[in-house]
Amino acid sequence: MGRIGRSFMLVGQSYRVLMQDKELMVLPLASGLVIAAVAVSFFFGFGMDGAALAHRDPKAMLPVFLFYVVTYAVGIFFQAAVIAGATERLRGGDPTVASALAAAGRRVGSIFLWAIVAATVGTLLRMIQERAGFVGRIVVAFLGAAWSLATFFIVPVLVLEERSIGDSFKRSVSIFKETWGESMAGGATLGAAAVVAWVTLVAAVGLLAWAGFGMVALGIGAIGAVLLIVFFSAIQGVFVASLFRYATHGHTAEGFDSALLSQAFVPKR
Which of 6-15, 165-174, 226-235 is predicted with the least confidence, judged by mean pLDDT? Predict the structure, then answer.
């Protein structure tokens, strides 16, 4: 089975689990709304100067970094809540939005500390990429991919296990290596299905606009974008929870195919 086929099958399996607790889709929607509110408050509260940002004025970069930290923290918190809720379902429980938020809330301190680390690494990689030459950009791209794989399981570790940030990072790396080895170069295969969905939406909006239905195209594009973001964010949480359970408990959660989970990452070539 090809990568796209595996991707759609994994989306389908994650979707069937998610549909048992549809209310969990409220969490990524809430995350987006909170991040939007944070963006507005930072823009007006700090009065971010576009010209100063373009010239890398240190005074302008500080609020940008703080913005990264806060948005990272919000995104990670709600992602942790989805993963906690999905894990409760995979264990045979009956999660609610409240129970998922409570699970993430118990680890809010660690989540915020991890947001600082993630924002710092992301900012450094971006700064290096902007200043590096062609070869430097390739090196940074590899470093970014390695970082993504090394930290793939850090959110479920943070929310489901009582560990420090350093131990959580080591745990994430060890889970990945022990289950999938060190010869992986790509992310989880849900990405292929997401790309197909986004391309389909863009094509539909483009055709409507070309046919003269500009306002309809704009409305469908906006609504479709929100739905896709919410859907795939929730699906990703369920998928990560199932992969974490597969890797740490040695068995496949009900509703998932172990062969597909074992091929969840793209091998190096």
Answer: 6-15
